[in-house]
Amino acid sequence: MPLDLKSWIAHQLERVERALDQWVSVDASADLEHHAPVDLMAAMRYAVLDGGKRLRPLLVLAACEAVNSGLKHDYLPIEECDDELARRGAIGAVTAARASDEAALRAACAVELIHAYSLVHDDMPCMDNDVLRRGKPTVHVQFGQASALLAGDALQALAFELLTPERSVIEPVKQARLCRLLARAAGCAGMAGGQAIDLASVGLQLTEEQLREMHRLKTGALLQASVMMGAACAEAVPLAHAALHRYGAAIGLAFQVVDDILDVTADSCTLGKTAGKDAEQDKPTYVSLMGLDAARAYAQSLHAQALQALADTGLVDTRILQGLADMVVQRSN
Amino acid sequence: MPLDLKSWIAHQLERVERALDQWVSVDASADLEHHAPVDLMAAMRYAVLDGGKRLRPLLVLAACEAVNSGLKHDYLPIEECDDELARRGAIGAVTAARASDEAALRAACAVELIHAYSLVHDDMPCMDNDVLRRGKPTVHVQFGQASALLAGDALQALAFELLTPERSVIEPVKQARLCRLLARAAGCAGMAGGQAIDLASVGLQLTEEQLREMHRLKTGALLQASVMMGAACAEAVPLAHAALHRYGAAIGLAFQVVDDILDVTADSCTLGKTAGKDAEQDKPTYVSLMGLDAARAYAQSLHAQALQALADTGLVDTRILQGLADMVVQRSN
């Protein structure tokens, strides 16, 4: 990992951890009429804090920064290419960067809350029945099933609360757009829908097309939404928007392919969760469908698609998004 | 029930049922990239359609209509009391009524989706373990626990999707405000928080104060939010807003007191769910705490508080909200 990517990630992770620690807390509800019950909040914090790669928040923040870096000169309409306008554009970009910062941090945390809640529910006995997550007992093991259920539910609601702060610098139109993107990605035509297909497909022989559709919803939708929420924070122009959409789709799928590869090649300790679960539960995976080598080649080709999409954005600086695409494909857990 | 309240309710119920039928469907996701999986949607529709009193949607719609009826003359600032301004005010009110209509119907359905998802999760074996709801097998009995869990999760997401339509007549500021109200009422400092307190208090002796706090979150928050979302759709002025807030708090609490009364006085058939569960599970209730007669008197006093709050709104026509308050206290199921 190049040094500047590493320090960018370290800096952003610190911001995200601090923000999550602040927003997922009883204190955060102090301005509300009612405080959140302490026990429920403990389970919510256990599910969210001190764990996870925070890939989705990093994607939100990186996409926002990339859009804020502005469009390359060749991508600007000709009439805007004189020096005076370029200068004014640059000043506008700085102001926009500040204004989008608060939105991006909230969006980053909101998408992580949705991810965290989905893991809590997914680990429950009636779903994957997993007892280990990120090297710790899962929420239902630690707090009981009922609390795990409620903590997941409350985390989802909190995600939308984070996106709609009162008396905020974030324009209402942006708040509404972020809610829309997140709700769609989390719901029946996104993550929850993908999990339902996953559930229904245990023991079945899926085609590659069906497997891709399942993963596009189950994991891909939220990863892609992370990119698009970041783009929305910085108000990407249509060309950049469309290319980032393709980038998000490619890394969303790549993430799952690599997940399937790691499930057979890594051990539980490295993985931080129980390895070999998919094969044991007779779940269809890219590895079971195409074999290990072909799955690896597929991950590489999705990686190349993601990089091409970044080149197509016309944005000045997409290096962080590029680095995150590398991370998704080269990760070991 | 007076004839005009009855026909108002019948008309609104028909609108809400039609809207829910349309929005909780695979077709509704046709404009999205991905369709919702058919199985998941079946469980979601089972949980939402053809059942329930729809009290929360009715409160949203009634509050919106009441605010749109305008302020009484004595409540208008003196400088606005000449005839010309009153006339213009009336025209403005008609336009506002049309513009708020779409928002109120979406808000009505969104709040019902949150209510429906909470029942699905609440009925699950790790929570109340109930097999009967509205005279039908509960969702997890019908579709299995994993599907019930996912259907609940997807219903919550869909609620926020409904509130944030793209290219809509609903102003973004209103969309964001509705999301904020709903997210707070559903989350850790609202419904989910109240359920967590409920869970933790089984077998405990609560004070009346603690019991009230639990119910204010568990049931009250969402009922009150229904009223406030309706008020937000029609952009209530501060005076009306504050009084409607008190109305919402009073009927929210009254609803739960009556629920506790019905749990011991009604049979399962009338109730449409298993009666006597609270006593059996040794849950604290208003009846167990204060006795049946005092609980009844308390419900009546909350009813009176609700009516007083309506009188304080200064709104021209609050008859429907009044009728709904009567319904809450006089209901038999």
How would you describe the overall organization of this protein?
2 copies of one chain form a homodimer. Chain A has 333 residues and is mainly alpha-helical. Chain A has one domain (3-330): Farnesyl Diphosphate Synthase. Chain A is built from 15 helices and 2 strands. Chain A has a two-stranded antiparallel ribbon. In chain A, helix 10 (238-265) packs parallel to helix 15 (319-330). The longest helix of chain A has 41 residues, at 83-123. The radius of gyration of chain A is 20 Å and the shape is globular. At the A-B interface, helix 2, helix 4, helix 6, helix 7 and helix 8 of A face helix 2, helix 4, helix 6, helix 7 and helix 8 of B.
Structure at a glance:
Chain A has 333 residues and is mostly helical. Chain A has 15 helices and two strands. The first copy, chain A, has one domain: Orthogonal Bundle (Farnesyl Diphosphate Synthase).
Give the helices and strands, then pairings.
2 copies of one chain form a homodimer.
Chain A: H1 3-23, H2 38-48, H3 55-68, H4 83-123, E1 132-133, E2 136-137, H5 139-143, H6 145-162, H7 172-186, H8 191-200, H9 208-233, H10 238-265, H11 268-271, H12 277-280, H13 286-290, H14 292-312, H15 319-330
Antiparallel strand pairs in A: 1-2
Helix pairs in contact in A: 1-4, 2-6, 3-4, 3-9, 3-15, 4-6, 4-7, 4-9, 7-9, 8-9, 9-10, 10-14, 10-15, 14-15
